[in-house]
Amino acid sequence: MLGVSVDSRFTQRAWAEKMGFNFPLLSDFPHGDVAQAYGVYLPKNGTATRATFVIDQEGIIRYKLVTNTGTERDHREALEVLRAMP
Amino acid sequence: MAEVGERAPNFALKDQAGNTVSLSDFGVHKKVLLVFYVLAWTPI
User: Fold this and answer.
1) Cross-chain CB nearest to A55 (options B13, B34, B40)
2) Deepest of A8, A62, A83, A86, by most Cβ within 10 A of its Cβ?
3) Number of domains, chain A
4) Is A52 within 8 Å of chain B by CB?
5) How many C-beta atoms surround the C-beta of residue A43 within 10 A?
6) Chain B, window 25-44: residues with a beta carbon less than 8 angstroms from a chain A beta carbon
7) ipTM given for this complex
């Protein structure tokens, strides 16, 4: 699992420590270039929206879920897709 | 816009420890759950 946001890596570190996250939080700082490449950047906000991608072993996108910033994500489908992959 | 069935755009970004993580290195022969979120300190 990889997390991505426009936060600086110092913010990411503080948050990861506080929350006990043991996966990489990547800093897409300052312009959200990766979010833009994935089409999930919100120019008005200057941030990514909430978006989840499942990428297979060959680097192909197998699942995508994009929700607006105020809606909680349901990751069950993404996890099912992950489990169903070899 | 990255769509299902397409190749995931590669990237290389720093993680919270200052290590550079690229999709091509991290994801080789692995499944990847890539989660974009709005800002730290908000619900993922």
Assistant:
1) B34
2) A62
3) 1
4) yes
5) 9
6) 26-41, 43-44
7) 0.93
How many Cβ contacts (< 8 angstroms) between chains A and B?
Answer: 145
Q: What is the CATH number of the domain that holds A33?
A: 3.40.30.10
A34 is in which domain, residue-wise?
Answer: 3-84
Angle at B19 between CA B14 and CA B21, to 5 degrees: 60
pLDDT at B39 > cutoff 70: yes
Which residue in the block uniquely carries the two structure tokens 């006990």? A20
What pLDDT digit, counting tens, does each position of A5-14 carry? 999 999 999 9
pTM over 0.90? The answer is: yes
Distance of alpha carbon A62 from alpha carbon B40, whole angstroms: 26
Contacting residues of B for A5, CB less than 8 Å apart: 36-40
Measured CA to CA, the distance from residue B38 to residue A47 in angstroms comes to: 6
- Tell me the two tokens of residue A31: 């312009």
Looking at CA atoms only, how far is residue A41 from chain B in angstroms? 9
Contacts of B3 (CB under 8 A, 6+ apart): A61, A64
DSSP-assigned beta bridge partners for residue B13: B21
